[in-house]
Every structure is written in structure tokens, then in C-alpha cells.
Amino acid sequence: MTWRWEYVPDEETVADGAPTEFLVEVKKAADELVRAAEALYLHGPAYQGMDEGAKHAFVSGGFFVYMITPRSELVTIWQVTPDPLA
Fold first, then answer.
1. pTM for the complete prediction?
2. Strands laid side by side in the 62-69 sheet
3. CB-based contact 22:80 (threshold 8 Å)
4. Would you put residue 75 in left (φ > 0), alpha (ψ -120 to 50) or beta?
5. How far is Cα 67 from Cα 56, in angstroms, rounded to an integer?
6. Is it the case that residue 1 has pLDDT exceeding 80?
């Protein structure tokens, strides 16, 4: 298995209508989260602890809600929220 990230349920549902520049920042941050999770959970599929739950990540132009699931080697993005004043 290889660590990855994805929108849940899908990109169209989660990111529809968000500014392109903001989504570029979301993707950069998601890539960083994947690299960090891969280093933290070296034996992801064998992980026995509880998942950390949903977290917020702030990027230029807004924020997004994500969760790391070590056993699936997956970072999921559930919601993106562009800054309405940006």
C-alpha cells in the first residue's frame, strides 16, 4: 500500500466552486500531510491505535478539514472552505 490523499466523497462534491488558487494550496498542504503521516506511521496497516479524528488545516485563501487513517495509509479531505474575503 502507498500513502495518498483524496477528497471524500469526491473532488466534485468537496471542492466544487472553490477558487483554483486556493485548491492549489489545499493540494500542496495535502501532499505535505501525506509525507508527514508516512513518516509518523511507519507501519500504517499494522497501526493499532485510534485515529486522531478530524482536524483543520489553514492555507492561503482558507482552510480545509481532513483526517489521517493510518491503517488505510490515507489522508481524506472532507471539506474545503475558501476565505470569503480573499
1. 0.91
2. 4-7, 74-82, 62-69, 55-59
3. yes
4. beta
5. 9
6. no
